Amino acid sequence: MAAPDQRVAVYPGSFDPVTVGHLDIVERGAALFDRIIIAVAPDSSNPDKRPLFTTEERMGLLRGACAHLPNVSIEPLQGLLVDFTAARGARVIIKGLRAVSDFEYELAMALMNRRLRPEVDTLYLMASAEHSFISSSLVREVARLGGSLAGLVPPLVAQAMASRREGEPVLRGSGTV
Ligand code: PNS
Question: Nearest to residue 96, comparing CAs of 161, 18, 159?
């Protein structure tokens, strides 16, 4: 639970994997709030999606990618996002918005979340122009077909994706996953 005078925001997502677009939102959020909690959706959250990385692996990659941000922590998301947020003393959910195509889905979620808990609000940060085309699903496709991931994901994620392709353990030796 946050101290009463701390401004805390929750940044939720699947992060399968974390991209430079996600990182941009975390860095900007970390400059706006005292603390950011990244809430990582569990493997089972979307039955239509087969995750490339397990929740633990995605959290480990996020930990590595956010190591330079002392006010950012990473937790598994359990239950409703608004309940998770309120339980941590936060009143703000931050999200990145890339293009008009994101809008409809995000509007429905923001309105549902507000209906569930009016005291928790959603704050959207516009993706930086150079990241507006980057999504985890496109990154997974580029990786699967052997394309370069340079500039799309943090270097440790590119390394982990190469390891996954080769059938090797992810983040071997780092002790984080
Ligand atoms: O990165 P994603 O896959 O777009 O993230 C989706 C996520 C995790 C933000 C969304 O599925 C979510 O909020 N899940 C938590 C469960 C919940 O509260 N559902 C009701 C939302 S309206």
Answer: 18
pLDDT in tens, the chain (177 residues): 777 789 999 999 999 999 999 999 999 999 999 999 999 999 876 767 789 999 999 999 999 999 999 999 999 999 999 999 999 999 999 999 999 989 999 999 999 999 999 999 999 999 999 999 999 999 999 999 999 999 999 999 999 999 988 888 886 554 444
Second CATH level (architecture) for the domain 8-134: 3-Layer(aba) Sandwich (3.40)
Ligand 1 nearest atom to the CA of residue 39, by list position: 8
166 contact partners, CB below 8 Å, separation of at least 6: none
3-state secondary structure (DSSP) of residue 14: coil
Q: Supply the pTM of this predicted model.
A: 0.94
Which atom, in ligand 1's list, is nearest to the CA of 46? 11
Round to whole Å and give the CA distance between 35 and 154: 22
Considering 35, 58, 63, 98, which one is annotated as catalytic? 98
Catalytic: 131? no
Find out whether the beta carbon of 13 lies less than 6 Å from any atom of ligand 1.
yes
